[in-house]
Amino acid sequence: MNIDKIFTKIDAYASHFSEGQLWEKIAAMGKRLGQEALRSLLILYYTLENPAIPGKVRAVILGALGYFILPIDLVPDFIPIAGMSDDIAVVAAAIAYASLYITQEAKDKADAKLKTWFG
């Protein structure tokens, strides 16, 4: 399967993205995810603020965040340990895909948010 087909599948989840649901899921799962996974999620979220992002990149980011929000996906989130592994893999793939459009500002905002949560 080529990379465009993978990201077409990911961006199908874009309709599941909701800012409120994202924050709820982060609050519920944050400690289970760990700071690096949370940082990646936040970087994607703050990257969406950049109006210069191409539509395809925006769709992949929204799809990855939508996939994260859904409780039932490839590996359901309620399964201990493995439940979040697919979510983290999708977020990592979206980070790689969007890497040219991730700014230092988005990283700084993510780091500042983590600092308010974890000190």
How would you sum up this structure, described in words?
With 119 residues, this protein is an all-alpha fold. The protein has one domain (3-118). It is built from six helices and no strands. α2 runs antiparallel to α3 (35-47) and α4 packs antiparallel against α5 (85-98). The longest helix has 15 residues, at 19-33. 29% of the residues are buried.
Summarize the structure in short:
The longest helix is centred in the N-terminal third of the chain and has 15 residues, at 19-33.
Task: Compile the SSE list and pairings.
Layout: H1 3-11, H2 19-33, H3 35-47, H4 55-69, H5 85-98, H6 104-118
Helix pairs in contact: 1-4, 2-3, 3-5, 3-6, 4-5
By secondary-structure content and strand pairing, the structural class works out as: mainly alpha
Average pLDDT rating:
82
- As a percent range, the share of helical residues equals 55-70%
| Low-pLDDT segments | none
Radius of gyration: 13 Å
Order of helices and strands: HHHHHH
Tell me the count of domains: 1
Number of helices: 6
Strand content: under 5%
Largest beta sheet, briefly? none
Query: What would you call the shape?
Result: globular
What distance lies between the first and last C-alpha atoms, to the nearest angstrom?
Answer: 42 Å
- Number-wise, the strands total 0
